[in-house]
Amino acid sequence: MRVRSTTALLVTVAACCWGCDGWRVYQATRCVNAGAELRRQGRLVEALAEYQRASELEPELAAAHLGAADMHLALGQNAQAIRSYRRVLEIAQDYEIALYSLGLAYVRLGRRTEAEGCFRRILTRNPAQAAAHLQLGLIVADRDASEGRFHLRRALTLCRDCVLGTPEAVRVLSSLGASGTPR
Is the dihedral of CA 148, 153, 158, 159 positive or negative? Predict the structure, then answer.
């Protein structure tokens, strides 16, 4: 078969590959990239649509579900965000950012026990994760001041700006009698 132009070759390849796994992954990846660009532009609803299209094309593409989950969370659609983050973790169990974001979605819904579980799971795998220490400290401080203080101080040691840039963390540290300087 002789092809006269690059365009003709692409059309021929597209016609042959339409519906094959490689083509679906390629198209899904293009949708994820388009979603990321729309997100950067602040066009969250359109970004969500691209991520959802990607996940329809390639249901096992964790990045598509993660993008959709992030958009749901940004749009205040916490229950949908939780479903999408859970799907990401079904596909890729060790996806730390998905687990962290799932914890944040649980916090927004007032499901502190589930959120605590997410942050503890992260810290089991990565004890130097400052953001997880910060969130866990904020969650447990009410019922266990000592543990709350420990996690907030640990977060402060790991990423001082992360803690001091979070008004709630500064307030909780002060209420626990902890200074802004780790011991």
Answer: positive
Distance CA 52, CA 46 (A): 10
H/E element, 81: helix 78-91
- DSSP letter assigned to residue 166: -
Q: What is the pTM of this model?
A: 0.79
Q: How many CB atoms lie within 10 A of CB 156?
A: 25
Please tell me the predicted confidence (pLDDT) of residue 178: 58
Q: How many CB atoms lie within 10 A of CB 165?
A: 10
Question: Do 63 and 52 meet the contact criterion of CB atoms below 8 Å apart?
Answer: no
Residues of the chain with pLDDT under 50: 1-16, 180-183
Residue 155 and residue 134 in contact, taking contact as beta carbons nearer than 8 Å: yes
CB-CB neighbours of 26 under 10 Å: 14
* Structure token digits, residue 115: 């959120």
Measured in degrees and rounded to the nearest 5, phi and psi for residue 82 equal -60, -45
Is the Cβ–Cβ distance between 156 and 180 less than 8 Å? yes
According to DSSP, residue 76 is labeled T
- Asked if 151 contacts 136 with a C-beta cutoff of 8 angstroms, the reply is yes
